[in-house]
């Protein structure tokens, strides 16, 4: 698959996810309505592949100083970290996923400010966090 095709795929994935999240956030349930329990659509392996692609987009955007696409990818990683908390019942796994989401939000904010040093530090932390989780949970 070409680099442009991969970027287009993740761009569409990102936009559709943002739209879905936005619609969910703005939806006001009826007073008697109960939101269904959340269940990720992707299994954990599919989600990790998407996260890997977005992580690569962030790195490339940082290297090329394409701040907005890099920040958008970092925000998507933030949301995937939130979703990842539902992929496993182990408390340590959930802790890793929450920390990854928090670190990605820090990364996205640094990219938005075009703060290269802070973004590089945050990216390093995200990579370390992912590696620590994979060391413990990847089969």
Describe this structure in words.
This protein has 139 residues and is an all-alpha fold. The protein has helices at residues 3-26, 44-64, 67-84, 91-112, 116-137. The chain has one domain: Four Helix Bundle (Hemerythrin (Met), subunit A).
Please provide a brief summary of the model.
With 139 residues, the chain is mostly helical. It has helices spanning 3-26, 44-64, 67-84, 91-112, 116-137.
Low-confidence stretches: none
**What fraction of the residues are assigned to beta strands by DSSP?**
under 5%
Secondary-structure element sequence? Answer: HHHHH
Q: Which fold name corresponds to the CATH topology? A: Four Helix Bundle (Hemerythrin (Met), subunit A)
CATH class: Mainly Alpha
What is the alpha-carbon Rg in Å? 16 Å
**How many strands, what sense, and barrel or not for the largest sheet?**
none
| Distinct helical segment count | 5
CATH architecture title: Up-down Bundle
Termini Cα gap = 27 Å
**Number of domains in the coordinates?**
1
Q: Outline, from the CA principal axes?
A: globular
Rounded mean pLDDT is 86
What is the strand tally? 0
């Amino acid at each position: 698959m070409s680099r442009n095709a991969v970027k287009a795929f993740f761009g569409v994935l990102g936009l559709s996810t943002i739209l879905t999240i936005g619609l969910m956030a703005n939806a006001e349930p009826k007073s008697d309505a109960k939101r269904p329990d959340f269940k990720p659509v992707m299994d954990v392996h599919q989600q990790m592949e998407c996260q890997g692609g977005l992580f690569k987009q962030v790195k490339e955007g940082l290297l090329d100083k394409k701040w907005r696409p890099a920040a958008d990818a970092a925000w998507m990683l933030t949301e995937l970290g939130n979703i990842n908390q539902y992929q496993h019942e182990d408390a340590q796994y959930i802790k890793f996923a929450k920390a990854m989401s928090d670190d990605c939000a820090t990364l996205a904010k640094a990219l938005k400010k075009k703060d290269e040093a802070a973004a590089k530090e945050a990216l390093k932390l995200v990579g370390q966090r992912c590696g620590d989780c994979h060391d413990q949970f990847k089969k």
